[in-house]
Specification:
Layout (H helix, E strand, L loop, with lengths): L8 H28 L4 H15 L6 E7 L2 E4 L8 E8 L5 E8 L13 H29 L8 H26 L8 E5 L2 H9 L2 H12 L7 E5 L2 H10 L4 E4 L6 H7 L1
Parallel strand pairs: 5-6, 5-7
Antiparallel strand pairs: 1-2, 1-4, 3-4
């Protein structure tokens, strides 16, 4: 769809930004994979914290720490510096935790100190995944505690049942928001991009993997199908043969052509 000069500064900037987004998606996908294995909480958190530096803008100068239940999980050679991104999380029973990412040296200012707004989105997503995983662990333990037992533990059983019901209420509320939107469910997505973008995002499966990670977090099972095309003619050909619920058009160096195509 576009003709690129690979030496163009704007093209290099777009390529760099796309590579950063792919790093962030990879971190989410790897985190989801670790959590799907059902590892003990401590083991999962230690593995996740080791993933974090590679997803930030300057991996070789990035260290990270996760705190939960008076335990600390760190990358190697960890120390606190003056450049920190912090994200707290809270489990269903009130246990507090946090994720911290530090740079070991000063970098140019971005959206949040030296950090990007996309990195804020990433740390929030990782926090949500961890919280959901820990809550699920705790819910299973609470369920076991509500099974038949001696009368002496009745009071403990009442508290456990309340916490379990609280978990279920929150889980159902978050899920129901999306199920209420089922009449508007997106099942087919057409991705229109140049050949490089179409391959990087759709061809390697990373876009679909990211969607799968989000659906896993929301306990949804049916993900949309993504079809990538690399030009206007092919896009209209696909539209004639099949209905698409959503069309995503990537804007490259040539910003005029995508806008005209939208119109």
């Amino acid at each position: 769809m576009d003709t690129f000069n690979h030496n163009d500064p704007e093209y290099k900037k777009l390529l760099y930004e796309q590579q950063e987004r792919l790093k962030e998606l990879a971190c989410i996908n790897h985190t989801t994979s670790i959590l799907k294995e059902g590892k003990p909480i401590e083991e999962a958190l230690q593995q996740i914290v080791l993933l974090l530096p590679a997803a930030w803008q300057y991996p070789e100068y990035t260290i990270a720490r996760i705190k939960f239940m008076n335990k600390t999980f760190e990358t190697s050679n960890f120390f606190e510096s003056g450049w920190r991104m912090y994200q707290a999380f809270l489990t269903i029973d009130g246990e507090k935790g946090s994720i911290e990412v530090f740079y070991t040296r000063e970098f140019r200012g971005e959206d949040e100190g030296p950090f990007l707004k996309e990195e804020r989105d990433l740390i929030q997503n990782i926090s949500s995944l961890i919280t959901g995983y820990i809550n699920s662990f705790k819910a299973r333990n609470l369920y076991r505690m509500t099974q038949p037992h001696d009368d002496a533990e009745d009071q403990k059983d009442v508290s456990s049942r309340k916490l379990l019901q609280k978990f279920l209420d929150r889980h159902n509320a978050e899920r129901d928001v999306f199920h209420d939107l089922m009449p508007f469910k997106v099942k087919e997505i057409l991705l229109v991009a140049n050949l490089y973008d179409a391959y990087s995002i759709e061809g390697e499966g990373r876009f679909s993997d990211h969607i799968l990670g989000e659906y896993y977090q929301l306990s949804l099972t049916s993900i949309p199908r993504v079809t990538g095309v690399s030009g206007e003619e092919e896009a209209f050909s696909r539209l004639k043969s099949r209905h698409y619920d959503m069309i995503i058009i990537m804007i490259g160096v040539d910003k005029e052509s995508p806008m005209q195509l939208c119109k």
